[in-house]
Amino acid sequence: MPDARFFLSLDTINVSSLAERIGGVLVRGGDTAIQAVAPLATAGSQSVAFLGDRKFVEALASTKAGCVIVPESAIELAPLSAAVIVSREPQAAWARASLALHKAIALEHSVPAADVCEDDSVMLAPGVVLGHGARIGCGSRIGANTVIGPGVQIGRDCQIGSQVTLGFALIGDGVTILSGARIGEAGFGAAGSATGPVDVPQLGRVILQDGVTVGANTCIDRGAYEDTVVGENSKIDNLVQIGHNSVIGRNALIAAHTGISGSVMVGDNVMFGGKAGIGDHITIGDGARVAAGAGVLANIPAGETWSGYPAKPIRQFLRETVWLARQVTRKKGEGRD
């Protein structure tokens, strides 16, 4: 279930009614009660999941979901224990189900500081907005016009700059977030449908562990369902983008203009040069280094340094660069003869 500090669970609905709402066709299990959406791997008996890609067929076969949304070709692959809805656009149908079952808790008004601050050592600059259920630990300082959304938890001795927005987030102790950062906004998720792209509700959180630094105007998106996580003592420069569901290990160094796509797994002690770009669902091992301007489209083993576009081990990249330069020089020489 999505975190109740950030999301409301709406009324339970039976599969027959759900199929009507999302434009699907009921195959079986119309009386099954559903109260949540979830991925195939973690869905329970009162959750609805979907098959969006054939590579997840094994997860479909083993899911504990009470209901699954599948294309017609996959009906026979669904477990007999699950109710089945058929859709030509399973992910878009699942997104519609999300809207029927969950709702983000809105920031309707600012609550008194006494309801949020652990003690009088918390310093709030003018214009700070505090959401219901938020909590700020002792010794933390919040800059002017910063918005702390409903349910957000901030640890002790944190430094939050001005004009920051924090939502759907759990912040550890000793975290620094510089001005203009956006933490916990919805990740970029859209599903194709016959009527055009459908926004996929983002039901996860952002977790910043102890000692993390986030630079000015950096954006860290909340997870689509799981969490986006930045590990202890990682340091993130200005103007960095971290996509939904990504997990950054401990002691990472991420220079400005780096873009990390969704569902990237980064080990401990990894370094990113400026303007590095990381494709989605990439794994980067412990101690790896990504050179400035690199475009990473494949997994990087632990301890290796990669450069170029598409990125490759730096020695290979340099050899190829030297060879190419020699070919160009040779061609120019031949042209003068």
Structure description:
The protein is 15% helix and 27% strand. By secondary structure, the protein is an alpha/beta fold. α2 links the parallel β6 and β7. The N and C termini lie far apart (73 Å). The mean pLDDT is 95.
Q: Say what oligomer this is.
A: single chain
- N-C termini distance: 73 Å
- Spans of at least 5 consecutive residues whose pLDDT stays below 50 are none
- Biggest β-sheet: count, sense, barrel? 11 strands, mixed
Total helical elements: 4
Question: How much β-strand is present in the residues?
Answer: 25-35%
Question: What global shape is seen?
Answer: flat
The strand count comes to 39
Biggest sheet: strands side by side, in what order? 10-13-16-19-24-27-30-33-36-38-39
Please summarize what this structure is.
With 337 residues, the chain is α/β, with parallel strands linked by helices. The protein has four helices and 39 strands.
Secondary structure elements and pairings:
Elements: E1 7-9, E2 13-14, H1 15-22, E3 25-28, E4 33-34, E5 36-37, E6 47-50, H2 57-62, E7 67-70, E8 83-86, H3 90-101, E9 102-104, E10 123-124, E11 129-130, E12 135-136, E13 141-142, E14 147-148, E15 153-154, E16 159-160, E17 165-166, E18 169-171, E19 176-177, E20 182-183, E21 190-191, E22 198-199, E23 206-208, E24 213-214, E25 219-220, E26 228-230, E27 235-236, E28 241-242, E29 247-248, E30 253-254, E31 259-260, E32 265-266, E33 271-272, E34 277-278, E35 283-284, E36 289-290, E37 295-296, E38 305-307, E39 312-313, H4 314-336
Parallel strand pairs: 5-6, 6-7, 7-8, 10-13, 11-14, 12-15, 13-16, 14-17, 15-18, 16-19, 17-20, 18-23, 19-24, 20-25, 23-26, 24-27, 25-28, 26-29, 27-30, 28-31, 29-32, 30-33, 31-34, 32-35, 33-36, 34-37, 36-38
Antiparallel strand pairs: 1-9, 2-4, 3-8, 21-22, 38-39
